[in-house]
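Tokens in:
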């Protein structure tokens, strides 16, 4: 597989410097008292983007790779297998439960299952469920027969199956909108109320729009800034009707990552908020407060009325907010499989999803 993730390529240097700062429990500033966290799902494989729909939280599990190992780049070997999945988390009236609604999708990871890539993005809207699968070129040694033909594709998940809805990576190879290099890593997806889907191509530094009929085309290209490429990783629709995009730009010690504001009809960039570490996820509550996962700084940041407050979460990625009660959901230990991964000589917990109250 071409890389385990664009995330690792862009910020792997930050890992050693920050792995020790993310605690296993959460705390944080909140004017009404400290937020409280609950672990609602464990045993997940590299949980990434989240989506909330009708009382259910969906999580894209990037998987844990497999037994076939290829490549010897700066990240070492990438081991590939069919271990990626989309999982539904729900409250059954007495306890939190979760189960994989689709599984056995392509995944690549480190030999210990950490830092995977696979189905990295998920979006649920009005009972319809969509996933986005990363891309790997055939010359990387990845199989090309089904289900590996799902690489680089938008997937419609229904009745335990993932069907190809659009070829997203083909947009990069046909148009190369950003021009810096020809590479693709579709990483996040957002279903819009009008039937379109927006996909963030992290390696392409752009957004792709997919029509209800499955036609994919360029939508927004993000400029380089602060001596780094943008690397868009996360998407949200704001209460103001605009599209918001989080990016991975920069390193933890240089908080240059932005949340971009984009016109959802034209793709035009309307502005941005800056000063974040590498972003793994974004979400809004109904009041318009913005939540940002700062992946390697180990915090989820709430931006409200010009103020920023934090809750500590280890390696936070995807975010989702219940529109009715404002509870915040976040992927934690998002770079680890169910058994954890080794950092600074210590094994981390496995992938989890947390619920944050009072934030």
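Residues out:
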């Amino acid at each position: 597989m071409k890389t385990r993730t664009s995330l690792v390529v862009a910020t792997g240097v930050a890992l050693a410097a920050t792995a020790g700062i993310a605690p296993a429990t959460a705390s944080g500033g909140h004017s009404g008292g400290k937020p409280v966290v609950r672990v609602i799902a464990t045993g997940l494989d590299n949980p990434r983007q989240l989506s909330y729909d009708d009382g259910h939280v969906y999580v894209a599990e990037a998987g844990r790779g497999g037994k076939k190992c290829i490549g010897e780049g700066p990240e070492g070997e990438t081991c590939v297998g069919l271990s990626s999945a989309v999982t539904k988390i729900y409250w059954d009236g007495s306890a939190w439960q979760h189960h994989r609604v689709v599984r056995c999708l392509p995944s690549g990871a480190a030999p210990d299952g950490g830092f995977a890539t696979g189905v990295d993005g998920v979006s649920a809207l009005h009972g319809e469920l969509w996933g986005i699968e990363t891309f790997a070129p055939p010359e990387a040694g990845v199989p090309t027969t089904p289900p590996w033909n799902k690489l680089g594709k938008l997937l419609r998940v229904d009745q335990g199956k993932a069907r190809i809805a659009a070829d997203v990576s083909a947009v990069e190879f046909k148009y190369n909108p950003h021009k810096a290099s020809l590479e693709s890593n579709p990483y996040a997806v957002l279903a819009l109320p009008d039937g379109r889907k927006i996909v963030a191509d992290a390696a392409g530094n752009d957004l792709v729009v997919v029509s209800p009929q499955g036609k994919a085309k360029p939508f927004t290209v993000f400029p380089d800034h602060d001596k780094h490429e943008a690397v868009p990783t996360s998407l949200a629709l704001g209460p103001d009707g605009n599209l918001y995009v989080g990016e991975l730009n920069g390193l933890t010690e240089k908080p240059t990552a932005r949340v971009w504001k984009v016109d959802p009809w034209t793709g035009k960039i309307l502005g941005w908020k800056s000063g974040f570490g590498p972003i793994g996820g974004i979400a809004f509550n109904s009041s318009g407060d913005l939540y940002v996962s700062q992946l390697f700084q180990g915090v989820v940041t709430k931006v409200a009325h010009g103020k920023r407050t934090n809750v500590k979460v280890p390696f936070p990625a995807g975010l989702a907010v219940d529109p009715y009660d404002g509870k915040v959901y976040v992927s934690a230990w998002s770079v680890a499989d169910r058994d954890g991964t080794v950092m600074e000589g210590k094994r981390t917990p496995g992938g989890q999803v947390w619920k944050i109250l009072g934030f």
